[in-house]
Amino acid sequence: MGHSRINLSCMRPTEKYIRDNLENFKDEICEFLRIPSISTSPEHLQEMRKASDWLKSKMEDSGLEAEIYETPGNPVVLGKSLKAGDSAPTVLVYGHYDVQPPEPLDLWISPPFEPEIRDGRLYARGASDDKGQLYLHLKAAEAFLKGADNLPVNLIVLAEGEEEVGSPNLLPFIEKHSEQLACDIVVISDTGMLAPGIPSVLCSLRGLAYFDVEVKGPSSDLHSGIYGGPVVNPALALAHILAGLQDSKGKVTIEGFYDDLLDWGPQVKKQINDLPFNQQELEEFIDADLCGGETEFSILERLWTRPTCEINGLNSGYTGDGAKTVLPSRAQAKVSFRLVPDQTPQRIDELFRKHVDKVTPRGVEVTIKQLHGGMPWRAQLSDQLTNAVNSALKKIFNKRAVVAGDGGSIPIVRDLENLLDSPVLLLGFSYPGCNLHAPNEWFPVESIENGIRTIAHLYQEISLMDEIC
Amino acid sequence: MGHSRINLSCMRPTEKYIRDNLENFKDEICEFLRIPSISTSPEHLQEMRKASDWLKSKMEDSGLEAEIYETPGNPVVLGKSLKAGDSAPTVLVYGHYDVQPPEPLDLWISPPFEPEIRDGRLYARGASDDKGQLYLHLKAAEAFLKGADNLPVNLIVLAEGEEEVGSPNLLPFIEKHSEQLACDIVVISDTGMLAPGIPSVLCSLRGLAYFDVEVKGPSSDLHSGIYGGPVVNPALALAHILAGLQDSKGKVTIEGFYDDLLDWGPQVKKQINDLPFNQQELEEFIDADLCGGETEFSILERLWTRPTCEINGLNSGYTGDGAKTVLPSRAQAKVSFRLVPDQTPQRIDELFRKHVDKVTPRGVEVTIKQLHGGMPWRAQLSDQLTNAVNSALKKIFNKRAVVAGDGGSIPIVRDLENLLDSPVLLLGFSYPGCNLHAPNEWFPVESIENGIRTIAHLYQEISLMDEIC
After folding, report:
1. Residue range A107-134: mean pLDDT, rounded
2. 3-state secondary structure of A69
């Protein structure tokens, strides 16, 4: 407790700076969110440039040395403060300044690039993902550098502009600049909290193996009356293949699918099931009954710790209005599996193909392409680092942090961990239902202050990991 | 044989007229085919009018009294010759002057409405279906009326302009004019021969029950990572429902599905299996192995005498390029059943709904709509009528006619039979592979002469059914 008090006293000027400048920070976030930095469409190249320039200039305002690095795609912006010296730990913050396209536009209550605050929510594309959250780190650093004239850790802020298009140029960039990106810990604020007021550290992500499955029959569509009967219907063959992937108890029936699963242990299971999770609330929010999958596991276990099989798309024959009596020449499905440790997209690829080979009926041909793969991830935080994070969170939220999982996949996390040989900490401040990748994306206004303060305290706590302030 | 000789001698002027005018007939068919009488698109209303006017004027040229009847849609054209008198039988010919849209246009070798003869085939939209074949009846009548100054039967030619859009106004028209449409037999030439040179009478059609099946889950698409596991995937639920409709032996698994099937008897079975059918030829033509369905039945039995279940279309979630990790909110299929006597679309509707109800998993809702229904049909030809048809065919093709079936559905056949209380004779002259409803539709040039002559002899033979010429 003595330790904690010393720490608090050191933070006074930093905390004051945040308090004094909070309104200004909110205005600045809005400035950032007004730039339509949509990386998926080539007509926004200039806006991407505008966003990276804005970011560089704000990094400099915050007291970081900043530089723009060209890549074959959108530039990487790198901000640094290495004043803490060799004996202090180095934190690398990863974030992205590009956003998802805002379509469909007519579903937005206020325009996606005209930020608006309603009911404590800041609405804009990129508010949560990730411009709003990346910005929090700049301001935490600024609060130290301008408010206290010191930053207790060495800081590297790595911001890319291609996360929403699969980060094609990031890994080569990291490999090329690995020496100047060397760090002790990677922090990413691109996720959310379990619920408002519940400080959360995200400790697992599922992996992904995503396939295109095409069943080919006759070389062109046939009349379903004239030829129906002895011709194998590719859409019906596809239905048989897909239905055979999962049994009525929610188990994936591919041989070997569960072979590589790690046991999460009774402690994690208990931790997960002790979380304040309201099933009915989630059911109302997504307007669906949570009665699917492996019902012997709790909802959160199913979401975070169990692999799944999903059909993401189906397409065959005639799908317009009315009746067209076509026997389709082909049928297509997008099929994906969420993976958990130690499943790998490569192994699932093998097992999936083998399974489909076995069940494909005569008379049709099946082609399978893996379109996307990502490794599952579990955090590898030392006790010391865990304590540092918990301590920072407790100061702001006055509550013990919970360990949360996420059913989604962020392949870059595992890549950063491997390439930088550092643990990754996922510490985000958005709330459930913040409409990521959807119309009316928002970020909680209270998370601006809570986020900046938590991050500042985290930097401080990390700096204390090896020595006392 | 004596009977046959008298008959032939009577036909001499008629036959001569056909011979002398054949080139002129070919030119006239092309004139008819040049009118783009596409009933499916409203922008061709004027062309529909042009086609009906053309038809009326040609009926008059042939010696029929012709009239155009307005309907809420495209007009009905009625041509008549009742000179044969009350003691002669009355033949009603049904045909249609509207055609399917020609798209995709780029697949046509010669433009769809610029008729062209290549390798003994007359290529044009409507050549087989049905303008080319309807025209044959006008010329057969003309050959009698102009070549011999008599027509041995009373003839009514009923031509509609909405067959390709489901004949919405035909049945009301027939009901309204039932007295003047009273007849002893209905003849339709809108089908084909089993193979070139093989005179065929089409004696069965399958019925149809066509459904739209929609599986609804969450009210909007969800992220398949964040929510995947406890949410029932509507596309996977649909796959289970569809796969459960047919077992691996090609049997429809809906309870009661086969209950109403009539036994066609060993004689029909033998007749069908004695037909000159070349499986390899058909497989090459449609580029598909004929290994599906109920393999304990022959290919032709499966095509003509057995009911089927087909998926005509599938649609769900994301189907574009690449990977989108969406858990779709809905999944849709077009599902249809071909029916055989005495199945009915009404009964199949009940059984299908009951079956789907039983297998639908919790967590999704299924909506089923029947979009289209048609009764199966088997010809009810008296021995006398059968003899008349066979005799006419034998004279032209010098071969015994075969009894063929067709796996498709022509609901109007059963409707005409019922409304006009007369047997329907399906006697068509196109060949397999003539690209009905597809690019490069064609009609065999030799079928122009063979068709007109066969029809003329048929009229003659029918007139002989009750008295000798």
Report:
1. 97
2. strand
Q: Quick check: B161 and B35 in contact, CB under 8 A?
A: no
Which homologous superfamily is A2-204+376-463 in? Zn peptidases (3.40.630.10)
Q: Which residues of A touch B323 (CB under 8 A)?
A: 210, 312, 334, 336, 371-372
> Is any Cβ of chain A less than 8 angstroms from the Cβ of B111?
no
CATH topology of domain B207-261+307-374: Alpha-Beta Plaits (3.30.70)
Domain with CATH 3.40.630.10 in chain A: 2-204+376-463
A290·B230 Cβ contact <8 A = yes
Residue of B nearest to A359 (CA): B248
Res. B448 pLDDT band, cuts 50 70 90: very high
Question: A424: which 2 tokens?
Answer: 């990754």
Q: Do B313 and A327 touch (CB under 8 A)?
A: no
**Binary contact (A318, B318; C-beta < 8 A):** no
Task: Flag whether residue A436 sits within 8 Å of chain B, measured between CB atoms.
Answer: yes
Query: What is the number of helices (H) and of strands (E) in chain A?
Result: 13, 18
> Between the CA of residue A339 and those of A207, A210, A291, A316, what are the distances in Å?
4, 11, 20, 28
Q: Contact at 8 Å (CB) between B112 and B442?
A: no
pLDDT band for position B466 (cuts 50, 70, 90): low
Our CA-based measurement puts residue A136 at a distance from the nearest CA of chain B, in whole angstroms, of 24
Residues of chain B with CATH 3.30.70.360: 207-261+307-374
Interchain CB contact of A359 with B (< 8 Å): no
> Strands of A330-339's sheet, edge to edge?
A365-374, A207-216, A330-339, A308-317, B308-317, B330-339, B207-216, B365-374
Residue A165 touches partner B, C-beta closer than 8 Å: no
| Option in A314, A331, A408 nearest B226 (CB) | A408
pLDDT per residue over A336-355, tens digit each?
Answer: 999 999 999 999 999 999 99
- B369: pLDDT confidence band, cut at 50, 70 and 90? very high
Chain B: nearest CA to A205, how far in angstroms?
A: 9
Which positions in chain B touch A317 (Cβ < 8 Å)? 311-314, 334
Report the top-level CATH class of B2-204+376-464: alpha beta
Of A258, A251, A59, the residue nearest A159 (C-alpha): A59
Of residues A217, A225, A316, nearest to B314 (C-beta): A316
Task: Give how far Cα B327 sits from Cα of A45, A308, A343, A444, B227, Å.
Answer: 31, 12, 21, 26, 8
- C-alpha span between B465 and B463 (Å, rounded): 5
Q: How far is B387 from chain A (nearest CA, A)?
A: 27
Query: What is the number of other CB atoms lying within 10 angstroms of the CB of residue A128?
Result: 27
Residue of chain A nearest B217, judged by CA positions: A288
